[in-house]
Write a structure and sequence with these properties.
The chain is mainly β. It has two domains: about 140 residues, YVTN repeat-like/Quinoprotein amine dehydrogenase (Methylamine Dehydrogenase, Chain H); about 80 residues. Strands 1-2-3-4 form a four-stranded antiparallel sheet, with no helix packed on it. A four-stranded antiparallel sheet has the order 5-6-7-8, with no helix packed on it. Keywords: Nucleus, WD repeat. InterPro entries: U3_snoRNA-assoc_WDR, WD40/YVTN_repeat-like_dom_sf, WD40_repeat_dom_sf, WD40_rpt.
Length: about 250
C-alpha cells in the first residue's frame, strides 16, 4: 500500500478482515488485499469531485443476490454473502452511494432524487442490518432513516430530535438501534419506538458508539479521553463504568 500517493480520509477493514478500503480527499475508493498488500480495486463515480464522502459502512451480505438457503423461522430468503460484499458511503450532499464491490460498480444511490424522504443535509453515519437489505442513516436533521437498499426507498423514520444524530450502532441481532448525539437514545427496531434515553456524560457529541456482541453493553466516546460503558438492560440511564484513556 502506498501512503505517499493515496492519503486516506476514511478507511476500514472488511467484515471478513481480508480487505481494507481507503478513501482519498478526491473520493477515489481503493480496496486492498490485506494478505498480499496489493490493490484489488480502484473505484470512483463520474461526478466524484462534486461532493465529499463523510461516513462508511461495509457488509458482506448483498441485497441484490438471493441466497439458496431460507430462514427456518420466517421462510424468507436471506441475502447472499461474498468476500468483498457491499460498501455504503455517505456524502456531504445527503446522498448515500452503495457500491456493489463484486461487480465494481455503484449498485444504487440512496438520495432525495430516489426518495423524497432522503437526507437534505450531510450524512453523519451509516449502519447496515445483518441481512444487507436494510440500512440506517443519520444526519443533523431530526430523523434517522431506515432504507430498503434494493428499492432505494425510505421505509421508516426514527424521530431523534432537533439535534439530529452524530453516530449510530445496531445490536448484533438487529433488535436495538442506538443513536448518539449529546445524549444517547435507544430504539426498539421492531416497533420503531424509543425505549430509553441514556445520559452520555460527554461534553461533546458522541463520535464512537458500539454494542458488545451480547448487546447488553453499549460503549460510547467522543474526541475526549473518556469511554463510557452502559448496561442497556438496567433501569439506570447513567454509565455503568467510565474509563479514561492514557494520553501519555
Amino acid at each position: 500500500m502506498s501512503a505517499s500517493t493515496h492519503k486516506a480520509k476514511l478507511a476500514a477493514f472488511s467484515p471478513c478482515q481480508s480487505f481494507f478500503v481507503s478513501i482519498s480527499d478526491d473520493n477515489r475508493v481503493k480496496v486492498w488485499d490485506v494478505a498480499s498488500g496489493s490493490l484489488r480495486q480502484e473505484l470512483k463515480e463520474r461526478d466524484h469531485l462534486t461532493y465529499k464522502y463523510t461516513s462508511l459502512a461495509w457488509t458482506k451480505a448483498s441485497p441484490w443476490a438471493a441466497s439458496s438457503s431460507s430462514s427456518s423461522k420466517k421462510g424468507t430468503k436471506r441475502s447472499a454473502t461474498s468476500d468483498l460484499g457491499v460498501l455504503a458511503l455517505g456524502t456531504t450532499t445527503g446522498a448515500i452511494v452503495v457500491w456493489n464491490l463484486e461487480k465494481g460498480e455503484v449498485g444504487v444511490r440512496l438520495a432525495r432524487e430516489t426518495s423524497e424522504n432522503g437526507h437534505a443535509a450531510a450524512v453523519t453515519d451509516i449502519v447496515f442490518a445483518s441481512s444487507g437489505a436494510t440500512l440506517f442513516s443519520s444526519s443533523n436533521e431530526k430523523n434517522v432513516l431506515e432504507w430498503n437498499v434494493k428499492d432505494a426507498s425510505v421505509t421508516r423514520k426514527f424521530k431523534v430530535g432537533s439535534d439530529g444524530a452524530s453516530k449510530l450502532a445496531l445490536s448484533k441481532s438487529d433488535d436495538v438501534l442506538a443513536v448518539g448525539s449529546s445524549s444517547i437514545k435507544l430504539f426498539d427496531v421492531a416497533s420503531g419506538k424509543k425505549s430509553k434515553k441514556l445520559t452520555s456524560g460527554h461534553a461533546t457529541a458522541v463520535s464512537q458508539l458500539a454494542f458488545s456482541d451480547c448487546a447488553r453493553y453499549l460503549f460510547s466516546s467522543t474526541g475526549e479521553r473518556f469511554i463510557n460503558v452502559f448496561d442497556v438492560s438496567a433501569e439506570s440511564t447513567d454509565p455503568l463504568y467510565n474509563f479514561a484513556a492514557d494520553t501519555r
